[in-house]
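Researcher: I need the complex structure. Ligand is copper (II) ion. Inputs:
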Amino acid sequence: MKYITTFIFLFSLSISFAQTSHTVTVANFTFTPQTATINVGDTVKWNNVQGTHNVRADDFSFFSGAVAPAPWEFIHVFTAEGNNPYYCEPHGGPGGSGMSGVIVVQTPVSVEEETIVDEFKLEQNYPNPFNPSTRISYSVPSASFINLKVYDILGNEVVVLVNEEKQVGSYEIDFDAAELTGGVYFYQLTTNSFVDTKKMILMK
Ligand SMILES: [Cu+2]
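Model: Output:
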């Protein structure tokens, strides 16, 4: 007896890179939040609401300009991974001293989803043993031409139960063996990518 089992998997890979804008509030000699963690491509807006300040990266990769009284906004887009320490020139210094902050830029985490679509399945008939009829169930994961036949113990074809295109779904079919002699029979489900055979016993 030959069993071939084919599983069909559908892998859907979705990666989202949502660009987000983050705000750092500048007030009371403090940047809030002091450490902001963002994704590559995100924007940070410093919003000075109180006092006279500026924003300058330790490495000078971004700079709001000369110290100026509130209100003002400064926007910078971060396009590379890494830590970006910065400070306010009159009230802080490089390396995190005084009025300072850090923008931590990360690569967005990709979201990977795996969906397993149902597989072809041929169930054991019920009841089994049986007399004179039994029910055979099978599942179709994608529209397919389905062939379901019954054979006797010698491999002779006894009856064709299904021989047609079926849509996705679960199916049942009754096999009536009133005309047959008792003994072992096989039923086989065949598609272009799947074959399975099971044994059933007609008790008379
Ligand atoms: Cu300041």
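Model: Summary of the prediction. The chain has two domains: 21-106, 118-202.
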